Amino acid sequence: MYPSLDAPSSLDGGAGKAAIKPASKTLNAVYTNLTGLDIPINVEYKINDRFFASAGVSVFGVLEEKRTNYFRSEVQEVSYAVSGDRNNLKQNPTPVVKTMFVSEPTVNEPYKDHSFTGFLNFSFGYKMPFSSKISLSVEPFYKVPVGRVSTQDMDLSNGGIRITAGF
After folding, report:
1. pLDDT, mean of residues 37-57
2. Which of 111, 124, 112, 94 is nearest to 151 (CA)?
3. pLDDT confidence of 153, banded at 50, 70, 90?
4. Which residue, among 93, 96, 76, has the nearest Cα to 17 in the 3D structure?
5. Does residue 17 carry a pLDDT above 50?
6. What is the C-alpha to C-alpha distance for residues 151 and 130, in angstroms, rounded to an integer?
7. Is the dihedral of CA 43, 45, 51, 56 positive or negative?
8. Cα separation of 23 and 100, whole Å?
9. How large is the C-alpha radius of gyration of the chain?
10. Regarding beta strands 96-106 and 116-129, do their DSSP bridges make them parallel or antiparallel, or are they unpaired?
11. Which residue has the higher pLDDT, 3 or 24?
């Protein structure tokens, strides 16, 4: 019969008891993936024939949200060594600490309940004409969230480069 790992025990008549620390679970990170629809209204200022600046607002509607929590868990376990026969197990005097990293999907969806949030949009662009009717614009942009949803646990600020074809 093997001893249980659930509680501290002593197999050698009461000498050398080793305490087992309960598992500790720490939240390391939360990964959130939002899929949504962004509806912008911008005003564009033409600096010259090729350069322009744009500012405006947009409304972002959350269509789907997936969250995953990443945990670090430490467990102290008592190890056993066989000495002689299988019925004579001896307890190692020092518990062994095992660290595990675990990910768990969560049902918590704080943005789905508040599905619309607003953004302030800023950008500058460069228009490259290919012909009299066709042009290509390259426009770095930055979006800053405004409103109640922007104070949640995630920074919704975002930016990128928008490439637009004009006909």
Report:
1. 94
2. 111
3. low
4. 93
5. no
6. 44
7. negative
8. 11
9. 30
10. unpaired
11. 24
- pLDDT of residue 92 exceeding 50, the answer is yes
Tens-digit pLDDT profile for residues 94-123: 667 778 888 888 887 777 766 677 899 999
Residue in the block written with tokens 């500790």:
24
Q: What is the DSSP string of the chain?
A: -PPPSSS---SSTTSS----PPPEEEEEEEEEEEEEEEEEEEEEEE-SSSEEEEEEEEEEEEEEEEEEEEEEEEEEE--EEE-SSTT-EEE-SSPEEEEEEEEEEE---HHHHT-EEEEEEEEEEEEEESSSS-EEEEEEEEEEEESGGGGSSS---EEEEEEEEE-
